[in-house]
Each structure stands twice: as structure tokens, then as C-alpha cells.
Write a structure and sequence with these properties.
GO molecular function (chain B): metal ion binding; metallopeptidase activity
Protein name (chain B): Insulinase family protein
Shape of chain B: globular
Largest interface: A-B, 86 and 89 residues
Distance between the termini of chain A: 61 Å
Helix content of chain A: 40-55%
Distance between the termini of chain B: 48 Å
CATH topology of the largest domain in chain B: Cytochrome Bc1 Complex, Chain A, domain 1
Number of domains of chain A: 2
Organism (chain B): Micromonospora radicis
CATH class of the largest domain in chain A: Alpha Beta
Pfam families (chain B): Peptidase_M16 (PF00675), Peptidase_M16_C (PF05193)
Number of strands of chain B: 11
CATH class of the largest domain in chain B: Alpha Beta
Number of domains of chain B: 2
CATH topology of the largest domain in chain A: Cytochrome Bc1 Complex, Chain A, domain 1
CATH superfamily of the largest domain in chain A: Metalloenzyme, LuxS/M16 peptidase-like
GO biological process, one term (chain B): proteolysis
Largest sheet of chain B: 6 strands, mixed
Helix content of chain B: 40-55%
Strand content of chain B: 15-25%
Structural class of chain A: alpha+beta
Radius of gyration of chain A: 24 Å
Oligomer: heterodimer
Number of helices of chain A: 16
Largest sheet of chain A: 6 strands, mixed
Structural class of chain B: alpha+beta
CATH architecture of the largest domain in chain A: 2-Layer Sandwich
Chain lengths: ~450, ~425
């Protein structure tokens, strides 16, 4: 049988950014519109700075923001959105409150009107707050039965200490104590146009969509709220923290490593180093602990960016009986990359992946909307994507080796493990000092 | 407020279809708006076709299709796709198994080469089989065994509703069955089901039709011709009496329930089937829908309720028998019987009084948005068209769906609701064992 050769790639397509327009309204709201007309829809993202807000109130505010206004009930809001093929939802993290939505492109004006109605008139009706409060508490209880949530909670607490990022899910008792009046106050203080960014992406004409946004949102008023996050604290390595989950058939491994923001000169090289380590399927870590040893299904490592700092997090759910061996291989792969430069083949493969997935990311309305919004929330514009691509293309083998040594060294890792302590504690303690901690409630 | 009806936009994706001499069916749908492509190969075999004693085998075999092939070592497939700037995956469904990549369009020929190579034959070795049995067991632990509500209801409701092995069994598989799988089983499965005549290739995005057709002939033209096997009939009689079952989930903190009713044949009787797809949305899409209004907000009997077609949420890529499903999560101490009674009441009310002014139109507009959104990514288009070609020889249906959904009438939705009687219902209840 003759061996068939892999066909070469065609010429690389240049990254082409879609047409866009931007305007800052009198009230301080920035509006960015990006045209992608492939399907007759429009995506909406409204990023509102929301740092240092009361946690339980913030979460209940997000849950009840669409529950009614002076002139519209919750059901009317939902029905009016459906009528234009649309929907809106609110979500919260320690950086921002985000309203996300979509509609048929022909419904854009109406979508913006409803958005404005909610922003300027959300009334937090007592009866609905009551219902949503119970639903939020139930949701927190369900989240706490999920190992991924528990492991994340433990990791954040370990890393961030007293920083506002340390606790991101409120206690049920705190949620139960929130009254509608507190939500109205929080809304009046914090749901403000100054510093907020509205992103619209889709089958729209940018200038016309800017006009529509200006018309609809001109009456949304109020100064920004003076709140700032302290910078995230540096990682402080220490004993492995083991959180007991009796009877768990898998252990959740989480390793946090230092990282830098998108604009930092090391960022592109760090991203490539992370890919070579565990940031995509064809990485050393995945090929080792999944494709060679079968310890796990979906290990992955990711550089996460927040306003107050960036972090590299490696995550794997591994069979209980191989918890320590999986951690050993993880440290080994980190250490190997930090001390032995990647081959040029590995680097080029990671580079192509990083560049290609940029193209894929901006080839859909939802991908563009998420990216433009995340960029804008961190003070960047879509043009930065081209700059980032250029940095990825430029990063040399030395740059990547240096970044690996600086950021991926296993001695810098903060490690938490959630699993059946009785079955894994003693073998883990052969690899690292272990500190057993109660499962975060 | 007067009823304004949003005009549902028409989308007409260009479609080219042809069949190679070896029986491989091909669908091309060009769209040059971004320099990316989607490539999907779909084989007409899924969970329902796996043999007794081999539960989970269709999915395990899907993993083996990534373990090297005629000209490719283990790991090569992943590296070649990702090294070209693309992403890949595969998934196993009740009636089909798909394999796909999305990449910058300069990698079109490479993707075709990779898919053709494994269509000629994967490298089936004992070592790879054992490795992937381990990986699949970890997948099952992550998604089912180590989390609350694992497999609810897609794995736990079919055995209540159905009596025959193909429809009722656990598609993820038992650990015993997975561990008993052999390389010979895999070779047989490949020979029988992974035939050129049993597959569809779809390519979407930034391509030139003539050039793509030439490359497809170059890479797939000499895949040995093998015919599609006879597809067995998986039909089962309708339920004539209500079925109820329950189980304790040791990790779940709160109760939950799911119910299913059989629906018309999605392929042979699409006109009768489509109103059920709309009905599920009328019942559960958002705060203005009937069951969310009644159960979540008025009665506070559930914390969430959802409705959809097909056990895997697959309204347009499943064959008969299939079902309309409703699932609800309840607050602490919630009363499942009461929830089911309320659902009956609401279905009766819909069947008796019909829909309110504008209720259907707004639901249809929202469904159009969902359908369009799914096809914005070129890969979504390739995957859906491949399955529509395989099951209906009509990939162009994808562009027609928003309009067809929009043509469903009040009377049809009402008639569909009339058939969701408690005696035709199968339900499964999750009893929380993990309350703290």
C-alpha cells in the first residue's frame, strides 16, 4: 500500500477585520457596532463596570433586573422580546454586570427600546424578587453539589485571600436577607452609562445602528460610581490544599500559575507556552495524561483575564486511584517546559493554532460580540486582535522558552485538589506537603 | 397592543449535492464571508445500532476513529488539524455519528485528506482500545457518575419509555460492556457501518464549488466502495398506560422530574411532527411561556422548566421513535405529582382554549432566531446539512426551517397539545439523596 502524503496548506489568509464604528454618547456610554451580515440577526452585549458591589445584592439584581418596570411586567418584557425573535439575560462577575441579548436584525430598534426601559426603569417588584430569591438560593445549592464549582471556589479562596475575587458566589443566608429596596438602591448607584460599553454585532449598518443606540439610550443617565479594584495579589505557593469530598470517584486537580494581561509584552509568548503545555488537545499534558495514560477525559489549561489581574489555570478531573500519578505527570510536564525549550515543530504547531483560532473566533456574530465586549471591558478595541496576531507571529523560540521558565515553573504553582481524602491524601503527600481543608460551603 | 408579526427572514444557502462512484454522498454549501470552512463526515450508525452486550460501543468506536488511520500515526489527526489552525471533534447520537473540523480555508485539502484516510480504515490496536476505554470511563465519571443529575434525563428516561434494547439502553455504556470490547468487535463495527455508502461528507464556507469537488474526488474517490447496511426498524408500539419511575441520586440536592410523550415520525411525517417542535417552545420558552408562567411564577412549584424534542435535544436529526420532553427542577420538598397534574391542566387549557393573540407568532419569531444563530458558524451549517442529507436527502431544508416553523398554525399546535395525555406519558423522578 502506497503511503499518501499530507497535503500542504494553501497560502495563509490575512486576518481581515469586519467593518465597525464607535461613538461615545453624552451620558458617557460607549457604543461599538460591528458588521457581520451572514445571518439576519444582531447580538448585543452591554458591559457595565460593577466592581466591589455587595455580592448577594449584585447576584439578585442580575436575577431580577428583567422582572418588570414601571410600565412593563416581566411577562410583557419577555413577550415583547420574543416578538422580535429576541431575548435578554443578565449575568454578573466581580468585574462587571453584563446584559446579553439577541434579536432578528429587523428588531434592533425595539431591542434597544426594551433595553433602555429596563436600564432606566427596572422596578424590582417585591413579588418577583421573592420568587427569584428562592430560585437563586436553589441554584446556589445545586452549584455546590458540583465538583467543578467546589474546586473553583476553593481555588479562588486560596489564591485571592481578602481580595474581592476570593468569593464569587454568595451564601444562601445573604441572599435571603436581600430586600427589593436594596436592589433599587444598587441599581440607581451602579447601573449607569458612564464607563459602560454597548456592543452590537450583526446584520446592521454601523452608522445607522449607532444612531439607533443613541436615540434609545440618550435618556439613560447618571454618573459613574467611583469604585476600583485593588490589583490581584501575587500567587503565594504553599502546601497542596486537599478538600475532602468523601466517595468522590474522581479528583478535581486545579493548578494556578502566574500570568500577564493581554497587552503585556510577554503575553503572546506565554499564550504559546501555555498551548504547548496543556492549552489545546495536541499539547504535552493532554497527550501524556489522556492519550498515553488514560487518567482523564478533558484536561485543559487556560490563561484567564480579569480586570485586576490574569491567571493561568490548569484543570483536570482524574480517576481517584490515579490522583497522585496524574499530579506527578502535571508537575513533570510543567517542569519540562520550564527547563527544556519546545521544539520548533511544537512551537509552529501552537502558533498556527493560535492564529487560526483567531480567524475562527471572529467568523461568527456571537464570537465577535464576546470578543469585542471582553476587549472593550479591558480598554481594548478589535484592532488589538491584529496587533496580537502580529505578536503571536513574531514570538521566537527564545521568547517562548523564557515565558515558560518565568510563568510555568511548577515551584510557582498553587495547587488545590478536591476528592476523597481518605483514598488520596497519603499518596499525594509523597509528592508535596498537604494541608487538608474542609470543603468550602 | 396590536399584534405585530415580525417577518421571518428567508435564508437560502446555496447547496450543491453529488454522489461519488463509491456511494459517498457529498454536500457543498459555499459562503465566502469569512476565510473559514467547516468539514463534517456523518456515518449512519448510532447508539441504537450497537449490539446487546456492547452498550456504549458506538461512542467508544467514535473515540477509536481518532487513534490513527491508514497513513496517520496515533495523535497525528489532532496535530494536523490544530497545526493548521483548526479545531475538531466527534459526537455519537442515537441515529448517527459525526466527525468534524473547522479551520481556516487554506486547510481545506488537508481536512479532506484526514477524513478520507480514516474512512479507508482506522488503526485498531489493543493498546489504543484499552487507552480509550479508560478515557471513556473518565468521560462517564465527569458527565454522569461524579456529578448531580448525571445522565438526567437522556440516559434515565428512555428505559422507562421504551422496551426494546436499541431504544432503551444506556448509550454511554456500562463499564463491564466497555471493558469487554475487543479489537475484533471494532473491526466488525467498522466494516459493517463505516461504509462509503453509509456516509455523507459536507463542506461549508470559503470554498469554490468546482475546486472543492475536484479535491473531494481526489481524496475520497478511491475509498473502497461498500454499500450501506440495511437499517433495522426500531419502531415500538405507543404507550397505552402511564409509566412512572424514580431513582435516588446521591449527589442531587433537589428533586427533579422529566416526562416524555411519543410524537409523529420526524422523517416520514414531518408535517405532523413540526407542530410539536413549536409546542415545546410555546410551553417553555422564557417568562412569557405557559409553563414557566404557571409553574415557576404563579405556583412556584418548580425552579426551572424546559421542553424540547428528542432525548438528546435533537429535533431535526433523529428518526422515529422519538419524543417531546419536559423537564423540571423542583425546590426543596417539591411535589412531583402536583407538577405533573399542573402540566396536564395547562395542556388541557391549551387544547381547549387555543393560543392567545400573538402567542404563536412571537414564539415562532424566537425559534427563527435560534435556527439562524445555529447556522451562522459554517461548521453548524455543514453538520446540520450532512445529517439532513443522510436522513432526508434534503440538506436545503436547513434554510427552509425558519419559514416552515413560521407556517405552523394555531390549530396544529392545539391539536398537538391534545395528544399529550397522561396515559401516553413516561416520567422519571430524581429523588435527592444529597440534601445537606
Amino acid at each position: 500500500m502506497s503511503v499518501r502524503a499530507l497535503p500542504p496548506l494553501g497560502p495563509t489568509r490575512r486576518l481581515k477585520l469586519p467593518r465597525q464604528a464607535e461613538r461615545t454618547l453624552r451620558n458617557g456610554l460607549t457604543v461599538i457596532v460591528v458588521r457581520r451580515p451572514a445571518v439576519p440577526l444582531v447580538e448585543l452585549r452591554l458591559w457595565m463596570p460593577f466592581v466591589r458591589a455587595h455580592l448577594a445584592r449584585g447576584h439578585l439584581l442580575a436575577q431580577t433586573m428583567l422582572s418588570g418596570t414601571e410600565t412593563m411586567s416581566s411577562v410583557q418584557i419577555a413577550a415583547e422580546l420574543q416578538r422580535i425573535g429576541g431575548g435578554l439575560s443578565a449575568g454578573l462577575d466581580p468585574d462587571r454586570l453584563m446584559l446579553s441579548g439577541t434579536s432578528l436584525a429587523t428588531g434592533l430598534d425595539r431591542l434597544l427600546e426594551i433595553l433602555a426601559e429596563v436600564l432606566t426603569g427596572a422596578s424590582y417588584p417585591a413579588e418577583w424578587v421573592d420568587i427569584e430569591r428562592d430560585r437563586l438560593v436553589d441554584g446556589i445549592q445545586v452549584a455546590r453539589s458540583q465538583p467543578a464549582h467546589l474546586a473553583r471556589t476553593a481555588l479562588l479562596r486560596r489564591i485571592y485571600g481578602r481580595h474581592p475575587y476570593a468569593v464569587q458566589t454568595p451564601e444562601p443566608e445573604q441572599v435571603r436577607a436581600v430586600r427589593p429596596g436594596a436592589l433599587r438602591t444598587l441599581h440607581a448607584q451602579r447601573v449607569r452609562p458612564a464607563g459602560a460599553v454597548l456592543v452590537l454585532v450583526g446584520d446592521v449598518r454601523p452608522e445607522r445602528a449607532l444612531d439607533a443606540a443613541e436615540k434609545a439610550l440618550d435618556g439613560w443617565d447618571g454618573d459613574g460610581y467611583p469604585a476600583e479594584l485593588p490589583p490581584a495579589p501575587p500567587l503565594v505557593p504553599g502546601p497542596l490544599q486537599l478538600f475532602d469530598r468523601p466517595g468522590s470517584v474522581q479528583s478535581s486537580l486545579r493548578l494556578a500559575l502566574p500570568a500577564v494581561p493581554r497587552t503585556h509584552p510577554d503575553h503572546a509568548a506565554l499564550q504559546l507556552a501555555n498551548l504547548v503545555f496543556g492549552g489545546y488537545f495536541s499539547s504535552r499534558w493532554v497527550e501524556n495524561i489522556r492519550e498515553d495514560k488514560g487518567y482523564t477525559y478533558g484536561p485543559h489549561s487556560l490563561v484567564e483575564h480579569s480586570v485586576a489581574g490574569s491567571l493561568l489555570v490548569a484543570s483536570a478531573e482524574v480517576a481517584t486511584e490515579v490522583t497522585a500519578p496524574a499530579l506527578l505527570e502535571t508537575s513533570y510536564e510543567l517542569g519540562r517546559l520550564a527547563t527544556v525549550p519546545p521544539t520548533s515543530e511544537e512551537l509552529e504547531q501552537a502558533r498556527q493554532y493560535a492564529l487560526g483560532t483567531l480567524q475562527l473566533g471572529v467568523s461568527t456574530q456571537t464570537g465577535l460580540a464576546s470578543l469585542v465586549s471582553a476587549y472593550a471591558g479591558n480598554g481594548l478595541r478589535l484592532d488589538f486582535l491584529a496587533e496580537h496576531a502580529a505578536r503571536l507571529a513574531r514570538a521566537s523560540a527564545e521568547d517562548v522558552a523564557e515565558a515558560a521558565a518565568r510563568y510555568l515553573a511548577p515551584t510557582r504553582a498553587v495547587t488545590v485538589v478536591l476528592g476523597d481524602a481518605e483514598r488520596i491524601a497519603s499518596s499525594l503527600s509523597t509528592l508535596s506537603p498537604v494541608e487538608t481543608a474542609p470543603v468550602p460551603s | 397592543m396590536p399584534t405585530r408579526r415580525a417577518r421571518i427572514p428567508a435564508t437560502r444557502y446555496p447547496v450543491e449535492r453529488f454522489t461519488l462512484d463509491n456511494g459517498l454522498r457529498v454536500v457543498l454549501t459555499p459562503d465566502r464571508s469569512a476565510p473559514v470552512i467547516g468539514v463534517a463526515v456523518v456515518y449512519d450508525v448510532g447508539i441504537r445500532s450497537e449490539p446487546e452486550g456492547r452498550t456504549g460501543f458506538a461512542h467508544l468506536f467514535e473515540h477509536l476513529m481518532f487513534q490513527g488511520s491508514e497513513n496517520l500515526e496515533k495523535l497525528a489527526h489532532f496535530r494536523h488539524v490544530q497545526g493548521a489552525g483548526g479545531t475538531f471533534n466527534g459526537s455519537t447520537h442515537l441515529d448517527y455519528t459525526d466527525y468534524y473540523e473547522t479551520l481556516p480555508s487554506n486547510a481545506l485539502e488537508r481536512a479532506l485528506f484526514l477524513e478520507a484516510d480514516r474512512m479507508r480504515g482506522p488503526r485498531l490496536t489493543e493498546e489504543n482500545l484499552r487507552n480509550q476505554v479508560d478515557v471513556v470511563k473518565e468521560e462517564i465519571r465527569v458527565n454522569v457518575l461524579n456529578r448531580p443529575y448525571g445522565g438526567f434525563p437522556w440516559l434515565t428516561l428512555p428505559p422507562v419509555m421504551f422496551d426494546t434494547f436499541p431504544n432503551a439502553h444506556d448509550g454511554y455504556g456500562s463499564f463491564d460492556d466497555l471493558e469487554s470490547a475487543t479489537v475484533d468487535d471494532a473491526a466488525d463495527f467498522f466494516r459493517r457501518y463505516y461504509a462509503s455508502g453509509n456516509a455523507v461528507l459536507a463542506v461549508s464556507g470559503d470554498l469554490d464549488v468546482a475546486e472543492a469537488a475536484r479535491l473531494i474526488e481526489r481524496h475520497f474517490g478511491d475509498v473502497p466502495a461498500r454499500p450501506a447496511p440495511d437499517r433495522p426498524d426500531f419502531a415500538e408500539p405507543e404507550l397505552t398506560a402511564e409509566r412512572r419511575s424514580s431513582y435516588t441520586d446521591q449527589l442531587a440536592p433537589l428533586p427533579a422530574v422529566a416526562s416524555a410523550w411519543r410524537v409523529p415520525d420526524p422523517i416520514d411525517d414531518f408535517t405532523a411532527y413540526l407542530p410539536y417542535v413549536v409546542l415545546a417552545e410555546v410551553l417553555t420558552d422564557g417568562d412569557a411561556s405557559r409553563l414557566v408562567g404557571r409553574l415557576v411564577h404563579t405556583d412556584r412549584a418548580v425552579t426551572s422548566v424546559g421542553g424540547y424534542l428528542g432525548f438528546m435535544g435533537d429535533p431535526f436529526d433523529v428518526r422515529d421513535p422519538t419524543a417531546l420532553l419536559l423537564q423540571a427542577h423542583l425546590p426543596p420538598g417539591g411535589d412531583v405529582d402536583k407538577v405533573l397534574r399542573t402540566v396536564d391542566e395547562e395542556l388541557d387549557r391549551l387544547a381547549t382554549d387555543g393560543l392567545t393573540d400573538g402567542e404563536l407568532a412571537r414564539t415562532q419569531a424566537r425559534m427563527a432566531t435560534h435556527l439562524l444563530r445555529d447556522t451562522d458558524a459554517v461548521l453548524g451549517r455543514a453538520l446540520r446539512m450532512a445529517v439532513l442529507e443522510q436522513q432526508r436527502t434534503d440538506p436545503g431544508l436547513l434554510g427552509e426551517l425558519p419559514r416552515l416553523v413560521g407556517e405552523v398554525t394555531d390549530d396544529q399546535v392545539r391539536a398537538a397539545a391534545t395528544t399529550l395525555r397522561s396515559e401516553r406519558r413516561a416520567s422519571v423522578e430524581v429523588i435527592p439523596g444529597g440534601a445537606r
